[in-house]
Amino acid sequence: MLVAADKFKGSLTAVEVAERVTAGLRRAVPGLAVESLPVADGGDGTVAAAVAAGFDRRTVRVTGPLGAPVTAAYALRDGTAVVELAESSGLHLLPRGVFAPLTATTHGCGEVLRAALDAGARTVVLGVGGSATTDGGAGLLTALGARFLDPDGAALPPGGGALAGLATADLSGLDPRIRDVRLVLASDVDNPLTGPQGAAAVYGPQKGAGPADVAALDTALAHYATVLGPDLAGAPGAGAAGGVGYAALIALGAGFRPGIEVMLDVLGFAAALDRATLVITGEGSLDSQTLRGKAPAGVAAAARARGVDTVAVCGRLALSPRELGRAGIRRAYPLLAVEPDPERCMARAGELLERVAEDLARDFLT
Fold first, then answer.
1. pLDDT for 138-154, tens place per residue?
2. Which fold is adopted by the domain 2-37+268-364?
3. Is 282 in a helix, a strand, or coil?
4. Quick one: which of 58, 117, 322, 338 is 20 to 30 A from 225 by CA?
5. What pTM was estimated for this model as a whole?
6. Using CA atoms, how far apart are residues 31 and 253, in angstroms rounded to an integer?
7. Nearest CA to 328 among 314, 306, 310?
């Protein structure tokens, strides 16, 4: 039995989900052998999943999205570093009700990358979900030695809004070590940098951007790409994390892969699957977004390719049995079926998860 679930956002971490599911399974089937492998798809919780799989947790003091210092973690094992952009530049780091769509910076993420290089990383997995930023990755590149200058030769201020005034992009000072590592951009986002499906239009509103801000950011990012190089602005993933994908692809030589595929490789999912007769996956909401590369869909696809059945646990279920089946999930157990009030369900998520895990065990293991 393998438990490979993502977090229930706002309620439980992926590690806590695994603990609660295991407790429920063993209450129904005492002594059951259960292996836990918390998973993530590149967004919030990616470093935590790597640490749970045996990576060392490292911390570094860096620049937060608003410029104030924050403590960010990354994970390291055997020359592979897992860097989560949200740790340094995430929405959760903003004060409640405060957004900075035009000025938030990814500078801190570049500082974390530099720390990973200092620690000897030869492969870096960069997970880019959950960002508060739309700066095209300019802050990240600046932290690694790039210079972005206005027509007078002065450094641009932080944030995507300032990119409208970019005259010169000088990449000659980039840390040379970045070209000697394998950099993997891990994301479930395949948007281009600009346009109706671009970083500003699609994700800017989630970061506090109103219509005027979205238009200004899209124009600024388009100008940025003109100066830095337009060839990869339309590449899948260029719009990830407000354009960090574009910066990583064009300036750092990164390769783009779906986040869950990268993380399953890094976490050793294939080896764990060899020992499993059933996989339990899940996340807070199983919905249409799940089918677009979220962790449960990736877990189920990998398990199905190896002939192992998958079932799921979730807070909310918004997929039909047919949609679940197409994703490789035999059945889902939502917490809202036990406690229909959403607030109480989130507050009691751990207890309810144990209860549905008992039901799952009786259905599939007895």
1. 999 999 999 999 999 99
2. Rossmann fold (3.40.50)
3. strand
4. 117
5. 0.93
6. 49
7. 310
